Amino acid sequence: MALLEVRNLEKHFGAVRVLEDISFSLEKGNILSIIGSSGSGKTTLLRCLNFLETPNGGTITVNGETLFDANDIATQRESEVRKKRLHFGMVFQSFNLFPQYTALQNVMLAPELLAAEKPDYRANKKQLHQEIESRAAALIQRVGLADRAGNYPHQLSGGQQQRVAIARALAMEPDVLCFDEPTSALDPELTGEVLRVIRELKSADSTMIVVTHEMEFARHVSDRIIFMANGLIEEEGTPEEVFDHPRSEKTRSFLQRPAIF
Amino acid sequence: MLLTVLAALNTGFLQTLKLFIVTLMGAIPLGLLIAFGSMNRWAPLRFLVKKDMPKWQKRLLREQLRPISMVCRFLVYIIRGTPLMLQLMILYYIPGQLMKGGSPWGSGETGRFFVSCLAFIINYSCYFSEIYRGGIQGVPVGQQEAGMVLGMTKRQIFFKVTLLQMVKRIVPPMANEIITLVKDTSLARIISLQEVIWAGYAFLKGSHGYSGLVWPLFFTGVYYLLFNGLLTLLFGHIERRLSYFR
After folding, report:
1. pTM for this predicted structure
2. How far apart are the first and last CA of chain B?
3. Closest partner residue to B143 among A50, A98, A110, by Cβ?
4. Predicted confidence band at A260 (pLDDT cuts at 50, 70, 90)?
């Protein structure tokens, strides 16, 4: 059974239909890239998965557990939504690091707050803190920033900030890690270092969904590709199928957009 | 003579200081409460929204008829829209006019001090609330969303993420407002609170065996200047302490 199952997901803002009848599934350890022009609903889809938006219809299932069902109000309680969010991680286009914390503290904050809610927290405070700190340090090292762990976000380049944001998301050990155009706010020379980190995560059998405009990256790293247009999944398949033999006319014209110069 | 004057002015300035400190202790937390109140989105009539309603009606029910927010904003409008001196007089004299047993405040300095504190706390918490609101709304939404996707509760997000960023934003406007407060305490003279300007003026009117003595009144300016100088240094220090992040 697939790790993530999305069925008939719908989202509208007033009269505007942003997502229509979105269904797909994702196997554990796979990378899914979502491509498509601006306004096609890619970001909204990720925001629905992370419960930053409430879908108007459909279901979201992870590991056989139905996290969201538009017809079942019990799955939408605020108190439970918080726990459900932990199945998904999110890396934002604009990083959204907490400016008052160092890189290491950014990674440690949420795990510490979560640990503090455990009943045995008081007894093992020191030990838990050390475990979280060493895990955070290991993650910072994994994204190649061991020497910048004590730096504040404003002392880091955009690419470095985004790598810290990736480490921060990984620290919560989500089932599915979502990237919302992770390199769109970066200079071209900083894009590579972030994409490299994402590619290296693949070997560690993380399951990921990447919304991206980097076609070369999507083609070489993904197991599956979804092309979205006007809130619909226009085409889905392996990178070869979508990039080399697109069936849909819209996909073809999107991929063949002529270079401007 | 000099010693007599200084002693009287010191006593007056002590009263000024007391009013200043009590006002801050009351208005800083109360302002936060009013700020949250005016940002409250509770709209009990939103269930009346029907699909085929005109747009303005939907907006009215969903976004405008928010009672908690309306009450707080109306309070802020009234308090900011009228002079503090008038508020002091209303609070001091009106209850005595309305109540059968005469003024509930009593006639002594204690009563005057109590009314002054009350009026100043209400007045300043309204000003502070608007500064807080600006500070909270100035923190990018992305910060809250980052907290949410990391599984943090609203409370944790406010205290661990938003609060310090808000404090950093509001230090300069709060410094401005607090320095204004130091000088505004002199308004309490209108209900004869014996603060420093009252003490200085007493030498002009005649007291302590002196009358027509002009300089003590003007000398009170030195007290304000010294104290505000101290506050300016303090706020500069806080601003520098918070400059480690952006």
Report:
1. 0.87
2. 54
3. A98
4. low
